[in-house]
């Protein structure tokens, strides 16, 4: 009966309800009834047991109708549970209720000692009682969720990370609700913190073929044990084949059980699963529909337009957009992933994307036929047979109005494609996390490098942050001949200046030769010191069972 009154909201949509209840002038002290707190704890504990996750918020028909909000956030629920347990321990009887206190989240969290241990850790209720009392007292004083919780175990001062603390409190109260007794020994539980909280994202790109070859469940378990929180699983790559039993797809990988099995494993194992779609390339689609190939500039002034191999005219060929939307809708409905991750959502280079649809859009936005001819000639001068690879970029840098307009139009075209695909996904799963892997140059503080990226790719970080909850610059420094400071000083700083504050900036890092484990570990520490919201390593297949894996295990334990 109790379960019917409560609904867990795991997604971002529930989190925006925070602040919907305000105590006028802080004069009115609201309370949760005893049964309310126990229902909260029971529901949160069940999420921990079933999914190894902590929910964003809980919604219920509260007994004290009109006195507390219809939705209570996890941070507020955490105080209610801790305070209830403290009063229960002090009086040895059920409290009639506990205060409702709105709490803010800290700017970051700290790692606890127990994340270093692979086996379950325990402590006595007497030891845990000190942590509970400290936690409740801190919130009453500061109205801010602590970043870590101190605990004294057998006379030794230790730390509990906030996920372990909240999960453990919920399970203590669930046991009390079920049995009428508090446990003498406390088992410390772990759970994944909500995406919206300021815990660092520890993500990894994973090819479907890696899971197919190494084993889906075993490989995902190995990645979890390394410390990854988010799996970006490639479900449709440049070949266009998919790794689920689609009723829509034109081509299939050799193993179509990969996504279904990964979805099932991640859902119950405390891993967020983001389905990774390559957007502008699809060999299967262009082979089936040759007319869908993207247009490129002629190599000479009197030549014919080029047509791409597997790069799709995602602007002019509506059937491809509709096909992508259908695939995304199918995945959202059947597998309900946590996130939708876009890759290759751009133009290949400035030489491509010169089809009738782009020209029409340009003219609708104020460019004339003379402007278009000027742009084409400049593009051929830059990327044609005897092109200098620079003239178009130089014109943009110098402020050429026509070139600038063309670059802006291409960015808006890419944004429209992103919006169409994202909207399709959110119609099915409103709380899906939208993210994109972006080329690093448009984020750079170096004006020449930034101009290069904007001209070529049509990826404008400021525009992307309008529609993405997470942006991942692919800052593979060794591929660009850069040292690691380029990642934090040029790309991270530049991107952070461009994107919205509520968009998570997760740095995509090179996890393959010649990068070593020690180098990657140092880069990760530099990123965290810079206050990046997280990192994403490319890729699972090049780090597993290598010296990089051990370096990541050790580094991930150092931050929450």
UniProtKB/TrEMBL annotation:
<dbReference type="InterPro" id="IPR017853">
    <property type="entry name" value="GH"/>
</dbReference>
<dbReference type="InterPro" id="IPR052177">
    <property type="entry name" value="Divisome_Glycosyl_Hydrolase"/>
</dbReference>
<protein>
    <recommendedName>
        <fullName>Glycosyl hydrolase-like 10 domain-containing protein</fullName>
    </recommendedName>
</protein>
């Amino acid at each position: 009966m109790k379960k019917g009154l409560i609904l867990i909201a795991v997604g971002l949509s529930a989190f925006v309800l925070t602040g919907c209840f305000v105590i006028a002038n802080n004069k009115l002290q609201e309370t949760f009834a005893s049964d309310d707190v126990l229902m909260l704890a029971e529901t949160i504990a069940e999420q921990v047991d079933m999914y190894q996750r902590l929910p964003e918020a809980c919604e219920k028909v509260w007994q004290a109708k009109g006195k507390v909000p219809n939705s209570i956030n996890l941070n507020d629920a955490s105080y209610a549970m801790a305070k209830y347990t403290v009063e229960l321990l002090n009086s040895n009887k059920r409290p009639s209720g506990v205060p409702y206190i709105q709490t803010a989240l800290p700017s970051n969290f700290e790692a606890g000692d127990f994340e270093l241990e692979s086996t379950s850790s325990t402590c006595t209720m007497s030891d845990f009682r000190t942590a509970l009392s400290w936690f409740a007292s801190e919130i009453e004083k500061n109205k801010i969720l602590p970043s870590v919780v101190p605990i004294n175990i057998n006379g030794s001062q230790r730390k509990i990370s906030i996920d372990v603390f909240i999960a453990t409190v919920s399970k203590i109260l669930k046991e009390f609700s079920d049995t009428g007794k508090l446990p003498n020994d406390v088992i410390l539980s772990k759970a994944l913190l909500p995406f919206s909280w300021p815990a660092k994202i520890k993500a990894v790109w994973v090819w479907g073929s890696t899971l197919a070859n190494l084993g889906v469940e075993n490989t995902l378990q190995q990645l979890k044990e390394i410390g990854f929180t988010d799996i970006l699983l490639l479900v449709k790559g440049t070949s266009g084949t998919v790794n689920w039993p689609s009723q829509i797809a034109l081509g299939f990988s050799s193993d179509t059980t990969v996504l279904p099995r990964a979805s099932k494993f991640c859902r119950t194992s405390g891993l967020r699963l983001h389905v990774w779609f390559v957007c502008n390339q699809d060999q299967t689609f262009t082979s089936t529909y040759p007319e869908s190939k993207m247009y490129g500039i002629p190599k000479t002034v009197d030549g014919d337009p080029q047509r791409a191999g597997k790069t799709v005219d995602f602007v002019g060929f509506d059937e491809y957009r509709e096909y992508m939307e259908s695939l995304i809708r199918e995945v959202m409905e059947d597998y309900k992933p946590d996130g939708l991750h876009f890759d290759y959502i751009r133009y290949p280079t400035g030489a491509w994307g010169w089809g009738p649809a782009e020209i029409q859009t340009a003219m609708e936005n104020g460019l004339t036929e003379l402007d278009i001819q000027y742009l084409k000639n400049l593009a051929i001068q830059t990327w044609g047979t005897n092109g200098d690879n620079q003239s178009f970029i130089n014109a943009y840098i110098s402020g050429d109005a026509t070139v600038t307009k063309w670059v802006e139009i291409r960015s808006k075209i890419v944004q429209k494609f992103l919006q169409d695909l994202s909207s399709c996904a959110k119609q099915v799963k409103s709380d899906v996390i939208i993210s994109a892997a972006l080329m690093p140059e448009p984020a750079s503080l170096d004006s020449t490098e930034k101009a290069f990226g904007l001209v070529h790719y049509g990826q404008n970080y400021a525009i992307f942050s309008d529609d993405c909850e997470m942006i991942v610059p692919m800052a593979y420094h060794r591929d660009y001949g850069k040292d690691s400071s380029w990642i934090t000083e040029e790309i991270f700083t530049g991107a952070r200046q461009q994107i919205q504050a509520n968009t998570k900036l997760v740095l995509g890092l090179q996890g393959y030769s010649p990068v070593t484990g020690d180098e990657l570990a140092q880069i990760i520490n530099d990123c965290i010191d810079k206050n990046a919201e997280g990192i994403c390593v490319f890729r699972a297949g090049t780090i597993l069972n290598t010296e990089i894996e051990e370096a990541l295990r050790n580094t991930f334990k150092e931050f929450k």
